[in-house]
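User: Second chain of the day. Same drill as before.
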Amino acid sequence: MEVQRKLLNSPECCVDEALSGIVSCNGGLVLLRGHRVVLRSDLGALKGHVALLSGGGSGHEPAHAGYMGGALCFLLSGYVGAGMLSGAVAGGVFASPPPGSVLAGILTLWQAGVSGVLLIVKNYTGDRLNFGLALEQARARGVRIAMVIVADDCAFTHLSKAGRRGLCGTVLVHKLAGAMAERGCSLDEIVAKVTEATKGIGTLGVSLSPCSVPGCLPTFQLPPGEMEMGLGIHGEPGIKRSKVASADEVVKSMIDHMTDPSSQSHLSLKSGDSVVLCVNNLGALSCLEMAVVSRAAISCLEARGVQVARVMSGSFMTSLEMAGMSLTLMRTDKETLVLFDAKTTAPAWPNLSTAVLSGRNCSVAPPESASASEEAADQEGPLSDVMRKVLEEICASLLKQQEELNALDRAAGDGDCGNTHALAAHAIQEWLNSHVVPGCPGQLLSSLAVLVQERMGGSSGALYSLFLTAAALPLRGYSHPAAWAEAVHAGTEAMRRYGGAEPGDRTMLDALCPAVEELKRLSSAPSGGTMAVLQKAVEKAEQGAESTRDLTAKAGRASYIAAERVTLPDPGAVAVATMLRSVYVALGGSK
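Assistant: Same format as last time:
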């Protein structure tokens, strides 16, 4: 087992350098010289108000001082700002800050003329001891001060003397207390309100990987395919290990555990209650996963009759690079929501909608995809059976060639060319089973363009949809061979115009363009010569596809790969040649 790599200068200096970086990038923050204490730069604005000081071990960014980065790639300076914290004290990674730094932060705020100082502390022994010691020392110096302990962990069914751990619910307490302080409430009023609020806050985490303190081995081992539930934010192992399940199943089991009345640390939650939901990324979960988990949590709560008033989804209290998330629920009422919605300049706080989320309509109907005249055109005609046979042959050939196309694509792309074409083939097969094939070829191509656009996806779906859309126009009301040649030419030109590729760039055009040149002969082909022209076009397409083996890619994903590594034919060109061969076979030609 090796130490996890991190982009740092040294484990010993990482916290100090990180704090320096945060403050250097944010004019609203300053560092207290000689201490790991981040303060608001406008301390004068706090005069006469209660100041809020929190903190703890580093590695939980953006809690408490902040971090750089985020989904929008700009600086998030944590929870220090007007309407939230006045300052934050940072310890080493996962280590409680020393009482001397906590005291220095308290005295700096007190000397700024504040009416009192409230310490907001997570329920960990080190934090309680060090913040508590600083509180007693400050009180001995005449500072009006109080402390609120946040203990929101719902993991343990039976509590030890240490009680519940303080987790992401602490961030919600920062917000409520900060709004009251900004409003000018007294220290006693703020303590009473947030103490009551903490009774209705619960948090539970789950992880798919451990984390590692800089310079150290991972905090615990988690085999592939397993997950840990109920872990702490310092990498402590959880209470239950199980196989990784679906997001819906994981979220349901978490909420069931959090609200289990047989547990000493459960959160009392019943139908009709209103909650704030916080979906917290513990460090390395993708935005895609976070969105799926958020949807699952909202759905699960609404199924219980719980009204979701607000949702926070993002990184709020992390555990370094841990791939996991925690759910925090806070029972709320009208007064609490007013505090929760109050403005703050702390940039790590999300800009949330103040609309109640439960019960609203989350979707709108799309416009009608086809007009009445187009629907009327969906009637069978003399060519319907022939075109159905052609489509069936194309679909069968693409599905048969799926793995071959994937293999060709793995050499120069992401290996899904066969899968992408198979999606289109399955979609067309389903469509054929439930629709008549319109007698108008142009109408058929228009319908296929929409189908491919919606079901195939990716750049291939867009290119084929462009081709079919452009090819449909010359076939409106016409079905003679010259019209088909014109249609294929129009579709190819649309691909070139919007895709940016040209023949010789090692793309599907290297198979399609030679075939188009041959198909132009249909306008002058003698009676009965259509199949001969089509056969020649197929052969030209197959030769073009094979020639891509020796071409240097100038477009598409393969253009990013070293030429010496790309030695197989282009999969898109092979797919085009396959489809043209299928058309020829369906019309009576040989395979």
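The radius of gyration is 32 Å.

User: Great, on to the next one.
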